[in-house]
Design brief:
The chain has about 550 residues and is an alpha/beta fold. Helices cover about 35% and strands about 25% of the residues. It has three domains: about 160 residues, 3-Layer(aba) Sandwich (Rossmann fold); about 70 residues, no CATH class; about 260 residues, P-loop containing nucleotide triphosphate hydrolases (Rossmann fold, 3-Layer(aba) Sandwich), CATH 3.40.50.300. The longest helix is centred in the middle third of the chain and has 16 residues. It is globular, with a radius of gyration of 25 Å.
Length: about 550
């Protein structure tokens, strides 16, 4: 008996100029299964899924839905075939409310009973074909049913620009479920989620599968892949490599197929004695200007040369605001920040950069890059005013090109062209490499790295870990913010746990276990942690 496939993509080939993004790739998704699509950044994963969703057209190959060849010219065609996609970079309208974003393009129109009245018939025709009167009440009821069914709690009346990245992810998922899609594509869906939110999302995936939906799940995180997928298809540099049953393979095998070599999952760091203090934060408090709530409350800590100090915690507990306070992106309510024994509390962002701070931000699009600038231009964003790169307000193009080319070579930044390529058209992983390379090459005393491996594949993550440890060896002070517990334990010399804007514990990674750290991150006090662990042992 032949296997039933929800989707088959056979011999798919796609070129962008001289770049061969997909080279005769085969993807087969079984009905009611979860297929994980794995590969390095720029392996061609997002491209082939964009073809399935109708954003690109293949140069060669065919697509079959349940054995029947189909043509998908645009996303509307995909929607008609019950194919939905959550993109790595969300497709939401910032100025619209959550509800408006969910129903946009699939609005429920008000219905009026047809009467023999000519005016009523004309009104119904106009409402359907010319203008739309949306039945917002009915749409809200349908969306609320989805929210309750899948436990995807969001505020439907808030504007998208005012909600967190995690909430935006949920909006994208609800948006797809609202359209009753049967074939669901998730492109790096957990890249912006916390550990607990990831587990909640994977539970949702499992429920969707149990309901008979067929899912393609693009992820770099092999723990997640092995937790929920039935099969794994690996592609590398645009080529199909293999499809494996998840239950019959290992993370080591899959990672080797993805990268083409053995990958070290754990970063080994040498024992090192920290030296003099570089950063001292004392009694830092920050007020959220919109909510007027204190989001950082009396936080004090230091970072010394030759050590990695990690701010750990569930997202939204003040870690990001602490970084904003140090870098000048948010105004401090009180406290002081000392860098190399100099008070920088009142300095501008540029003055703090010049004083010795390098910053890899969490949101690469908002704070790390100018998307419509080239690689070359982005490589000098925080040093274009230096004499090596400008004179009398004129940029020294030759020097910028030389520096940008060195950065591209050293950090393996891949694009469809040279350094003049606009950053907007590059993959998220390669955008991240531009920022990381730029900030490390500035050779500052303090490197602040916030979620530095977000959106990167396992090979690139290994490389970033090595770079951070190299900075540690070179006696740089590193302040890391990470939601990845594997990364926290692998890289940290000290772990500071934040909860509700306060540091609630400081730990040596060699002397604390994941369970204890997780309990502190959830707000448990020391006595509660001990009681919980004692009860478990009993």
């Amino acid at each position: 008996m032949s296997e039933t496939y929800a989707i088959e993509m056979l011999g798919i080939t796609k070129k962008f100029g001289n770049i061969l993004a997909n080279d005769h790739i085969d993807i087969r998704l079984k009905k009611g299964h979860i297929l994980a699509l794995c590969g390095e950044n720029d392996a061609g994963k997002s491209t082939i899924m964009s073809i399935l969703f109708g954003l690109f057209q293949p140069d060669e190959g065919v697509i079959k839905k349940e054995g029947v060849e189909v043509k998908i010219q645009n996303p509307n065609d995909a929607t008609k075939l019950n194919i939905g996609m959550v993109h790595q970079h969300f497709k939401l309208v910032d100025s619209f409310s959550v509800l408006q974003n969910i129903i946009l393009g699939d609005e429920t129109l008000k219905e009026y009973p047809d009467k023999p009245n000519v005016f009523q018939k004309a009104f119904n025709f106009l409402n359907k074909h010319i203008f739309k009167i949306i039945d917002v009440k009915k749409a809200r009821e349908e969306v609320n049913k989805i929210i309750e069914q899948y436990d995807l709690q969001v505020d439907l009346d808030k504007k998208v620009k005012d909600i967190s990245v995690e909430m935006q992810q949920k909006v994208e998922i609800i948006k797809m479920l609202y359209r009753h899609n049967e074939i669901l594509i998730f492109d790096e869906p957990t890249a912006v989620l916390t550990e607990q939110e990831i587990q909640d999302f994977l539970t949702v995936l499992t429920h969707l599968k149990e309901e008979g939906k067929s899912i393609i799940f693009i992820s770099h995180k092999l723990n997640e892949v092995f937790q929920v997928s039935d099969e794994i298809t690996v592609i590398r540099k645009g080529l199909y490599i293999d499809t494996l049953k998840t239950s019959e393979t290992t993370k080591e095998e899959v990672s080797s197929l993805m990268v083409g070599r053995k990958v070290e999952f754990i970063s080994e760091k040498e024992k090192k004695t920290p030296q003099e203090e570089v950063l001292r934060v004392e009694h830092l408090s920050i007020m959220d200007p919109s909510s007027k709530k204190k989001v950082v409350n009396d936080v004090s800590f230091n970072v010394r040369k030759g050590e990695i100090v990690t701010l750990a915690g569930i997202d939204g507990n003040g870690q990001q605001e602490v970084i904003y306070g140090i870098t000048g992106l948010m105004k401090m309510q009180s406290g002081s920040i000392m860098l190399d024994r100099k008070d920088i509390s009142t300095l501008s962002i540029r003055e703090r950069i010049k004083a010795g701070i390098s910053h890899i931000p969490e949101d690469r699009h908002k704070h790390g890059l100018v998307l419509d600038y080239s690689i070359y231009e982005n490589s000098i964003l925080d040093r274009y005013f230096e004499k090596d790169y400008s004179q009398h307000l004129l940029l020294k193009d030759k020097n910028i090109t030389k520096y940008g080319d060195e950065l591209i070579e050293k950090y393996d930044i891949r694009s469809s062209g040279d350094g003049n390529t606009l950053v907007r058209g590059m993959s998220g992983g390669n955008q991240q490499k531009i920022i990381i390379g730029r900030e490390i090459e500035r050779n500052q005393d303090l490197l602040i790295a916030v979620q530095p491996t977000r959106g990167l594949d396992i090979g690139a993550i290994e490389g970033i870990h090595e770079l951070l440890l190299k900075q540690r060896e070179n006696d740089k002070a590193i302040l890391l913010v990470s939601l990845e517990l594997d990364q926290v334990f692998s890289l940290s010399d000290r772990i500071l746990v934040m909860y509700e804007g306060e540091i609630v514990g400081e730990f040596d990674p060699h002397e604390v276990d994941r369970e204890t750290l997780g309990l502190y991150m959830s707000g448990a006090r020391k006595d509660q942690v001990n009681a919980i662990k004692e009860n478990k042992h009993d």
